[in-house]
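Please predict the structure of the following assembly.
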Amino acid sequence: MAETNNEQITKEDIKELNPSFNVKSFFQDNIVTILFVFICILGVQLSKLPLFFIANELLVRITRNSFLVLALIIPVLAGMGLNFSIVIGAMAAQISIIIVTHWGVTGVPGFLLCAFLSFPLAVLFGNLIGRLLNKTKGQEMITSMIASFFANGLYQLLFLFLVGKIIPVNNPILILSKGVGVRNTIDLSRNGGIKYALDNILKVPIFNVFMGVGIIIIIYGVCKLYLGNRYGFKRISRVKQISILILGLIVFITGYIFTFSEDLPNNLRMLTNLKLPVVTSLTVIVLCLFNFIIVKTKLGQDFRTVGQDKHIASVSGINVDRTRIIAVTISTVLAAWGQLIFLQNIGTLNTYGSHVQIATFAIAAILIGGASVSKATIGQALLGVVLFHTLFIVSPKAAKELFGDAQIGEFFRNFVAYGVIGVSLGLHAWKKTLKRTKK
Amino acid sequence: MQEEYTLQMENIEKEYFGNRVLKGVNISVKPGEIHALLGENGAGKSTLMNILFGMPVIHSTGGFGGEVSICGEKINIQSPKEAMEKGIGMVHQEFMLIPGFTLTENIKLNRERLKGNIISRLFKKDSHKFLDYKEMNRDSRRSLDMLGIGIEEWVTVAGLPVGYMQFIEIAREIDKSNIKILVFDEPTAVLAESEANNLLKAMKKLAKTGIAILFITHRLDEVMYAADNVTILRDGELVATRKKEDTNVLELAELMVGRKVEVSNKAEEESRKHKEVMLSIKGLKVNMPGEEVKGIDLDIRNGEIIGIGGLAGQGKIGIANGLMGLYETTGEIILRGEKLKLNDTKESLTKGLAFVSEDRRGVGLLLESSIEHNVTITALQIKGKFLNRYGIFNQIDSKKIREHSLKMIEDLDIRCTDPQQLTKRLSGGNQQKVCIARALTLQPDVLLVSEPTRGIDIGAKKLVLDLLVQLNKELGMTIIMTSSELAELRSICDRIAIITEGRVEGILRPGDSDRDFGLMMAGEYHKIHGKEAI
């Protein structure tokens, strides 16, 4: 009797646990993202920029910035909040770029050498940050922010003073005319440097890529439909499988129309000139896969456990401190490589400035995508990059159209970046108290 | 040894800083036996379990005496991890579950089934292996089925009713393949009656599979229902071990509480009865985590010492905190015929309540401040005492403060170097006196004292209690004293209200029998004597 009774209660419980789709709570949960979708649409309308320009800029910026934003996910999983110390990872990248530029290694080998050199540096830095954050549990975000300010001081000391004074470097391209200190800007395209090293390996018209991706999605969908049923994955609903198939078809057909159709309107025809840097995109996809796969491993499960509750994790025998150090180290290494991808696309290294704001911008992007201090997904990161950079592209022009002054748009960019971080953190705290009072 | 025991603990002794908390306790449990461990708070139950689990707190305080053996084999457990490896499982009182995880993930926490992949084979490390959810789900299903739980294993824990969480904890323990003995630490404390019954049934089912079960509780009817044998501890001593068939609830209650109580002379008791009601509490509910009060009606007469007793977690601590507005409170508090505004500490203080908190080092004292500052701060804030007034400016009158503090130090015999000494440098008893001194500085009508003797040595205990009696007799102060130590309440109080499950179980006189106290603390009094017994 007791068992049947149990089961009855259970089913009711589960109904309560999975409430039907609720519009109000959907808005409440995604308020930041929804707000920014509207602002973006408005901005695109106001700026009167041609679609091609926006799409082209966006494509460049997505491939350039996604890697950095994706580097933020693992520390969030491990309950360490948004990792402002990716700035330090970026420093590791810049140190290795300066070394490689000094050695004069260029092109793809130069880029790979940078990646190779920055790895041990980033591991070292990440480890140190992890140790610091373990001493300041509960205040990881502010600690990582201040740590990166402090590291910036050391970085400047290294390149403004030690290089030339203590480390003898004789390279007029890099060193200021006094012989001490590294130049403010370093041109990475000189003699075919590492500029576009990754981007220019292979560039393919975007709609051809669309067609390819469409086919892959369709094949994936079909496989899932057949194999999934055979292995009895009941949890993936049929609706989802079919929508995957439809998505694949839409992507394929769009690609097909743009590639082969002759009678497109002019402004749309321009879009066929868009080219996708394939290798860079692949790197980003590989990183997405990496983030996806690591969650499925024992290490990933440890991250999640520690992220949810440090006390329970340690009671059940997980080495919490070590897990957290690994999480931050991975993030720092990824940030270093992300900064390499970023700089090879930009083409000039601003020795004392390139790294300073990347954390703020990356974090603003992921927050716009709908992530919070305690939850972040790959989808949110990518969506955030699209929205944030759309806003970045259109805001100066929109402001000029609106107020007659592009400077206001510039101001708006900064306002957005810092504002969104503030608002998101505020909302997060607010939701937490809301939950508590509901209990 | 005629029979094979799963667990034997022999002659267990333990000292904490010269204070003997376990004095030669023996306990043995056979396979498939449910053995109840009964005792008041502080009787030594948790210490005994800590020893069994090799908790760090035991080894960092000098280890223990006696022998523990599992399945006839002597062992020396140094850490909880080792205990787990030896087949000892524990169902925690507070849930060790992660809300955002599914049942499977919680059950398999850090014992996940893994399967290799290319990278893990390359680096030969377990941490790179994938989780094998299929196997994990199957294992969890098996454990859940064993307990008769119908919830799907992929549901997340968040939002499940409390009753189920306990079962998931148990499922986690029995999922461990080598489990031999399972300890339930007051598993029914947070459960509703029907849930508790399900749990007890599950326990019996588990015992049938040959797992030995140690069942810590203070609900006597559960003991009678589920246990095969009962061991009763009191003040670290083994009082008795009984077979269930040979005992009854009344005897157990008596054994649990029984101690020599020196009931002080209460000649004027009768005259007090007629005095007017000072403080009247109606339907008081306090939302204090861990000490929830669920509706209390209590009248407190002018000039009496009323004791509030009961076991930990039943809500006795919550009453004083609720009266002071420190936790969210609903209901009605009437002080001298006037309604008191709720959830407003300032109001409570100005209306003549003063509070000596149970959390002496947290809420009670400014540890980094001097004695005189601690003694006067509340009066200074609330009543504006010790201030020189210059129009819009106020200045602290340090001369008056010094005078008053010296007087308090002398009156209460606070042992210190001078009034400037930091309170964190004082001993526990003297800190408590500083807290009382501060409450007295307010010249309250009603003094609330919570756990006044917690963590202070025996000599100081007596001084604090004598002080309370003295205040009551000489100044006619009404005192509400909350304490976990029944003996203490019985030695100084006029009446003692016993709180169980957030409600007043009954009000007793200090001279009433041990049996009644025991039954009330266990929440059994009404079941036996009927409602009219109050």
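DSSP finds 18 helices and four strands in chain A. Residues 1-19 of chain A have pLDDT under 50 and may be disordered.
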